[in-house]
Structure to design on (361 residues):
């Protein structure tokens, strides 16, 4: 079978073997480099197999598959880092989730709009679906990343136990409502607007994979996710030591995690934008942001039962300003249902500001 001969088939298997050989041991530098390569290869493989499944089930279910797959990777990375980090890992969840929001809402959205606008002068998408998704992102971000900085029941930017449970349940419920609207009740709001250009050669028009290929990819997706989470645990000490030795803020660890996890999805969104399927790009971006908060926060809240150390979720003034600016600019971008290179450029400048200020706050 063709899929057996592809690199996306054997890379996750090799990564699992490397994981078994390195688990519970002090790793030398060359082995850490091998683990890092396996980690990156597994991330790319996971998203590839998610795309195969997505092609079979169609939109908007395809974007949902990718978003959930990426979020599983993110949650695994965060939990693994927090499990061995103690008190110094108290902000990993906040930093990673906030980085994911900034990368998706500014980096992926801005790059997709810029690519589509350069190709067609104006990028066209469904304002109804994108607007609802953006409203969900803003609400989730405010409830989980902003409110902890203003609550008074617990000192510092932390929730009390009851507040954390409420935020987790509310996030999960809001994510469930969004999925229901996206896939059932108002599915048409999230379907791509038909491209006007000749799409000859675009693989989105190709025949979907067979049922056997789909199940094969689904199984390999789980293998790749296992390899990602496990190898992330092996390589996490090297990431933390590198950030610490360079004298960089701890928040950089979260940025590195989010960039690594979301890079393949960024490539998928750009490919969709080049095919005039901007709505698919926005589904990927906003869907990932919603899943990143709506699934990560409940998972971290559950994991905090056995994880030691505090759980800091509230953002500082600098990041609060970036989040507020992102919310305002995103609303102005989405409402018209049309965008040009200016909107794409504005979002990319915001993303660049976020990355720069993460390294130099």
């Amino acid at each position: 079978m063709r899929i057996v001969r592809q690199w996306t088939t054997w890379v996750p298997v090799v990564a699992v073997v490397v994981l078994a050989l390195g688990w519970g041991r002090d790793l030398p530098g060359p082995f850490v480099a091998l683990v890092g390569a396996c980690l990156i290869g597994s991330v790319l493989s996971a998203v590839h197999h998610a795309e195969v499944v997505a092609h079979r089930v169609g939109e908007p279910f395809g974007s949902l598959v990718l978003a959930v797959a990426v979020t599983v990777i993110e949650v695994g990375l965060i939990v693994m880092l927090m499990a061995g980090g103690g008190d110094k890992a108290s902000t990993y969840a906040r930093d990673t989730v906030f980085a994911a929001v900034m990368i998706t809402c500014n980096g992926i959205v801005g790059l997709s709009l810029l690519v589509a606008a350069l190709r067609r002068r104006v990028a066209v998408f469904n304002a109804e679906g994108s607007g609802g998704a953006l409203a969900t992102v803003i609400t989730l971000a405010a409830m989980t990343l902003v409110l902890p900085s203003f609550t008074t029941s617990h000192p510092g930017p932390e929730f009390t136990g009851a507040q954390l449970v409420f935020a987790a349940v509310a996030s999960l419920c809001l994510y469930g409502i969004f999925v229901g609207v996206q896939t059932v009740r108002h599915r048409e709001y999230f379907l791509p607007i038909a491209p006007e250009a000749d799409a000859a050669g675009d693989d989105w028009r190709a025949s979907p994979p067979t049922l056997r290929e789909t199940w094969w990819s689904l199984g390999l997706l789980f293998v790749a996710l296992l390899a990602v989470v496990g190898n992330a645990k092996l390589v996490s000490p090297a990431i933390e030591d590198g950030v610490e030795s360079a004298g960089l803020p701890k928040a950089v660890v979260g940025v590195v995690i989010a960039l690594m996890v979301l890079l393949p999805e960024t490539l998928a969104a750009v490919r969709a934008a080049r095919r005039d399927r901007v709505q698919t790009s926005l589904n990927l971006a906003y869907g990932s942001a919603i899943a990143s908060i709506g699934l990560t926060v409940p998972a971290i809240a559950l994991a905090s039962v056995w994880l030691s150390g505090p759980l800091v979720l509230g953002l500082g003034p600098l990041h609060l300003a970036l989040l507020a600016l992102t919310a305002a600019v995103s609303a102005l971008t989405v409402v018209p249902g049309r965008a040009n290179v200016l909107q794409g450029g504005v979002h990319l400048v915001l993303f660049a500001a976020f990355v720069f200020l993460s390294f130099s706050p």
Summary: Strands lie at 123-124, 338-339. The chain has one domain: 2-359. Residues 196-204 have pLDDT under 50 and may be disordered. DSSP finds eleven helices and two strands in the chain.
